Amino acid sequence: MSWFRTYTPRPQAMLRLVCFPHAGGAASAYREWATLLPESIELVAVQYPGRQDRFHDPLLTDFTTLVDGIVAELPRLQGPTAYFGHSMGATVAFEAARQMDALGNGPRRLFASARIAPAVATRLGISFDTEDEVMAYIRSLGGAGLESLEDPDLRELALPMLQADFRLMESYDYKAGTRLSCPITVLAGSGDHTFGSADAEHWAQHTNAGIVTETLPGGHFYTEEVPGLVTDLIARTFTTEGAHP
């Protein structure tokens, strides 16, 4: 099954925005964005295996396997692209961008959201001994997914995805290499205790084209709290650059 979901097809769009979900997340986290973005941008959300319509696909616990699977399909997207990754998804997007850059088909810009730069957090491992510890961590982050995890039946379905993604992050081992040729916009929530503006500056070592840092109101999942502000920022970024869209 394809890795990509396009909720609002815009075949004439000037740009495809490829969005990478957070740990435990799914493509539907970006469904609302598809209608908030201007007609010139088509949103393409990545669907990791083992969730929603890919529920029967085995969950992945190896970071390289995940990125390679996505990169195998990225060349099929028509026209220019930009990548947006939130939390774990920012690192997935970064590694996908590095591979696509090497193929001469990298994104025009990487939006790295709520994630410490890979060269600083060289390993992303998060381990917990008990389910209570997992829940305490998730509660500290907030987000729309928390409500489902509070329901014991839904938690039984959702926890395996989270645990697999935690193991996947533990398998990530950053390797220094060529910097990205595109600029990076680094985004943070004003109330996010896991990532702030000081952390954002470290992303500069991952690109030859410079970074822009942005802080939006909200916590770690500010992307859910103020989605319109995020999509406006994305659209404004390309307008300011004097290029379509």
Q: Spans with pLDDT under 50 lasting ≥5 residues?
A: none
Coarse morphology: globular
At the fold tier of CATH, the topology name is: Rossmann fold
Oligomer: single chain
Number of helices: 9
- Separation of termini? 30 Å
Explain how this protein is built:
With 245 residues, this protein is of the alpha/beta class. The chain has a single domain, classed as Alpha/Beta hydrolase fold, catalytic domain (Rossmann fold, 3-Layer(aba) Sandwich). 37% of the residues lie in helices and 15% in strands. The protein contains nine helices and seven strands; from the N terminus they run ββαβαβαβαααβαβαα. The chain has a seven-stranded mixed β-sheet. Strand 4, helix 3 and strand 5 form a beta-alpha-beta unit. Helix 2 crosses helix 3. Belongs to the thioesterase family. InterPro entries: AB_hydrolase_fold (IPR029058), TEII (IPR012223), Thioesterase (IPR001031). This is Thioesterase.
